[in-house]
């Protein structure tokens, strides 16, 4: 994944790293969300936490299993 966008916004493809490894997904409008297809709503806890963040930012997100720390690896 190439880093050609400075911050996460709606439509961004994002690669995150956490304690379980790396994952890729797109941040989308709520009506287009489908977590099983890698489409995360901008209004979800993860989507809200990532909007405006840049590559290498560490972000803490409240997830169903508790607090989760992720690092933005790439944005495109």
Describe the structure.
- It is a single chain.
- With 76 residues, the chain is mainly β.
- It has a single domain (13-75), classed as Roll (Chitinase A, domain 3), CATH 3.10.50.30.
- Helix content is 8%, strand content 43%.
- It contains one helix and five strands, in the order E-E-E-H-E-E.
- The protein has a five-stranded mixed sheet with strand order 3-2-1-5-4.
- The radius of gyration is 11 Å and the shape is globular.
- The termini are close together.
Quick one: overall form? globular
Number of helices: 1
Report, as a whole number of angstroms, the end-to-end distance: 7 Å
CATH class: Alpha Beta
Percent range for β-strand residues: 35-45%
Q: Considering the protein shown, what is the CATH homologous superfamily?
A: Transcription elongation factor, GreA/GreB, C-terminal domain
């Amino acid at each position: 994944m190439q880093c050609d966008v400075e911050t996460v916004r709606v439509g961004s493809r994002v690669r995150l790293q956490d304690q379980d490894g790396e994952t890729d997904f797109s941040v989308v409008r709520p009506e287009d969300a489908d977590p099983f297809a890698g489409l995360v709503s901008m209004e979800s806890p993860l989507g809200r936490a990532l909007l405006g963040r840049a590559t290498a930012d560490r972000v803490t997100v409240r997830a169903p299993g508790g607090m989760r720390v992720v690092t933005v690896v790439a944005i495109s």
